[in-house]
Amino acid sequence: MVTTVLFDVHHGRRDPRQPQIHADDLAVVRGDGIFETLLVRDGRACNLQRHLDRFATGAARMDLPAPDVAAWRTAVEGAVAAWAQDNENADGLMRLVYSRGRESAPAGPQSPDAATALVMITAVGANAAHARERGVRVCLLDRGYPVDFAGRAPWQLIGVKTLSYAANMAALRYAAAHGFDDVVYLSSDGAVLEGPRSTVVAVRDRELRTPPVESGILPGTTVAAIFALAQARGWVCRTEPLTPDDLLAADSVWLCSSVTIAARVTRIDDTDLALDADAARGAAEFAELAQRAVVTA
Ligand code: PLP
């Protein structure tokens, strides 16, 4: 049986069967906070530095107190060690959760001590392995803003991993209700953006392409690790606008994220994305590269 591990960054290991969050925590009543999701494998939190960097950037964009990175690292390391001991080194899903704390906090919601700061590790769901092995059918859904919107509207927190993921979960339910496994969002002017929990990567020969962060997407830690290793291996990596036609013309298309790492898109709306023999070899090579990039980062 899986034993969930929970650490409070201020107070150390906690019993996950006991309540930890107050009913008036701003994470609960407003979704006013940030989070990260990481893969735990072989006794380490994969790609940790990129996650901590994005966490700090997200905190700054939300006017949260700067996270005490050393304290977060200590909690992460403690949680990983406890997880490995309790769960025979199985893969784990780690979440970092950081909110302003209680609405009624006496010190005021901006005090660093008042912040809610949790590290949790739990089992990886079966969906991740399924998506990795079998691929995903995706539908294209309009996200409702054009590619220049994020830069003009910083208050929208586009590109920040806030705790307000309700719309993303609703998009996934909408996709499931229509026979799809996942979603690729389009901007209102027709550009490919991202998945509700993943970054889009198109592979053609030894070239990788992904949409620019400025178009209104989260800067993915997985795609960053993949691009770093791919470049070292001589692949061409481009960050440039993509259209749905670019995806249909690619050898293979992938949804990349920290825990699943890379799931091949097998269908976009009504179009199956079949692999010929060359594309299948390229896809296998990309999948291996992506796994290695994440578990060594
Ligand atoms: N885009 C969104 C909206 C996400 O929620 C995620 C991850 O959950 C990603 C992209 C991929 O980010 P990462 O590779 O850091 O997991």
Automatic annotation (TrEMBL):
GO cellular-component term (any): cytosol
Protein name, UniProt field: Putative aminotransferase, class IV
PANTHER family: AMINO-ACID AMINOTRANSFERASE, AMINODEOXYCHORISMATE LYASE
Lineage, broadest ranks: Bacteria, Bacillati, Actinomycetota, Actinomycetes, Mycobacteriales
Family to which the UniProt record says this protein belongs: Belongs to the class-IV pyridoxal-phosphate-dependent aminotransferase family.
Superkingdom field: Bacteria
Keyword field: Aminotransferase, Transferase
GO molecular function, one term: transaminase activity
Organism: Gordonia crocea
GO biological process, one term: carboxylic acid biosynthetic process
Entry keyword annotation includes Transferase: yes
